[in-house]
Amino acid sequence: MEQFKGQPRLPKFAVPKRYELNLKPDLTSCKFTGSVAVDIDIVETTNFIVLNAAELTIDNRSVSFATKTSSKVFEPKKVDVMEDDEILVLEFAETLPIGVGVLTIGFEGVLNDKMKGFYRSTYNHKGEKKNMAVTQFEPADARRCFPCWDEPACKATFKITLLDVPSELVALSNMPVIEEKVNGDLKTVSYQESPIMSTYLVAVVIGLFDYVEDHTSDGINVRVYCKVGQANQGKFALDVAVKTLEFYREYFAVPYSLPKLDMIAIPDFAAGAMENYGLVTYRETALLFDDLHSAAANKQRVATVVAHELAHQWFGNLVTMEWWTHLWLNEGFATWVSYLATDNLFPEWKIWIQFLDESTEGLRLDGLEESHPIEVDVNHASEIDEIFDAISYRKGASVIRMLQSYLGAEVFQVAIFIYVFAFYNQRSLASYIKKYACSNAKTEDLWTALEEGSYEPVNELMNSWTKQKGYPVISVKVKEQKLEFEQSQFLSSGSSGDGQWIVPVTLCCGSYNVRKNFLLQTKTKEFMGFSIRNESGNASSNWIKMNVDQTGFYRVKYDEELAARLRHAIEKKLLTETDRFGILDDSFALCMARQQSLTSLLTLMGSYREEVNYTVLSNLISISYKVGRIAADAKPELVDYIKQFFISLFQYSAE
């Protein structure tokens, strides 16, 4: 069995098709027992079956393999749980027959307090502390609940039954209940068989809950579960969920694929939320909203988190990454499209300017020399948690928005439809496909769909953003009647990097109606598409703004002539709030990286004296505080001058 030690992924000679899973949790002792019968296809000659298991006690006497074409039962001569590698190795005396058979395993485990695997959460009911049972399997913790092929490409169907559940408790799983047998104080709950899905999306929750419910226009039952007495706090999320499901049904041109959607607030929950297929779990603050006591910011958080998790029902659950290397696409896409959905439901929120918080944090982190590429090779399950970070989520969302902006919303949406619908069709044929992992996808599959729909070099373009860390600063200057562009890697330390990108450049001149798009594929480029100067040579006319609406993941450095024009445009209120935010943020970052003088930054800040937009003003205040603190340390003699400057700067907004 030594040959299986330290292997990054499971061997491929056995492929799971269907799980019949029985679980019997004991909420008093915080233990559980269970059994699983897995239909597996032996596709290569072997006398081993290797799958994942961790922190489980395997009942060796219960382990067997039986073919479906004969009555012969194979019992392993050796059962080895390799804890370091989190795998279960079954060695048989005979070679297993090629074809489909059933692997049966009995096991037991502990409802842990680590908020992963099959764990316990606590809540108070009528002054009494009670336990609930919850699952959290992403990225690789289904193996802590039952022996399984715990990799996203190993999709299968799941038939789940919960045994000896206290009859007063609510017992939920991915699918609707098909049978509930009550025997005194206990009940057995059986659920419909699931569609094909990955193990990390399997979910079970058992506890005492209230709920509110509604239906989509095409009959999907939607519920929000929460602690007893809090049902009213679930109404806002319920309304958002119903409308978001309908928005995604239209956007993806594919209906939601399950008969119900449950969303549930969990008191002890490590992540913000988890997109389990049909049973989405949330931290309470990410799902519940109290009209009387919650802040407006909480309302927006609930809306975007719900929209994010429901996006995964298509992009992640229906079409699943082939391996964790492609996690960024799952999370980056869901983050981006959650803002698209929220903007559709609440246009008055102007949510895209708040998206700048996502991109700015991504820019800040990715400007560090210690950053990493969006797409990271994952060689072992122990490495997966490291890539659930702001680079995957925030930079990922930002580069997807950049691509959508460059290609155009309609072209992008059509390509997404091709991508999702192609795999949706493959899923419907899954029972006929020997290696049903074809309903998993890699990042390149999406780029191919987008390339075919746009006739743009999407693969090459996006590889320059996903396979290397960092991003560029684009320096632009006027040279006669031309604009001259030069890209270099931006590092917040002020040092230079050697990165080079294919940059989707957007710019406008004097008006948002006069726009140009092009790809900057080299270090330098000259562009002659605008009238750079008018006849009088007035430097304040024909302002030029690069990275229109801040949809690009890069910074811009203007020469003094172009900077002067932009200052004038800001003072005359000719620019959108997103562009005003971006110009200020870029200038501050360049100043901190010693690529621009403090004088230039302060001169620019003076153009914002009449700023009233909350997000822009908030950034202006934050930058002012940082500049003041730095100046006080470095140039104490300038403190009084800068203090007076800031008093003058904020006098208008304070009135």
From TrEMBL:
Record's cofactor remark: Binds 1 zinc ion per subunit.
Keyword Repeat (UniProt): no
GO biological process, one term: proteolysis
InterPro entries tied to this protein: Aminopeptidase_N-like_N (IPR045357), Aminopeptidase_N-like_N_sf (IPR042097), ERAP1-like_C_dom (IPR024571), M1_APN-typ (IPR034016), Peptidase_M1 (IPR001930), Peptidase_M1_aminopeptidases (IPR050344), Peptidase_M1_dom (IPR014782), Peptidase_M4/M1_CTD_sf (IPR027268)
Keywords linked to the UniProt accession: Aminopeptidase, Endoplasmic reticulum, Hydrolase, Metal-binding, Metalloprotease, Microsome, Protease, Zinc
A GO MF term: peptide binding
Cofactor(s) demanded: Zn(2+)
Cellular component aspect of the GO annotation: cytoplasm; extracellular space; membrane
Active-site residues, record numbering mapped to chain: E309 (proton acceptor)
Amino acids binding Zn(2+): H308, H312, E331
Keyword Endoplasmic reticulum applies: yes
Domain ERAP1-like C-terminal, chain residue ranges per copy: 543-651
Family as reported in the entry's similarity comment: Belongs to the peptidase M1 family.
Protein name: Alpha-aminoacylpeptide hydrolase
The organism of origin for this protein: Acer yangbiense
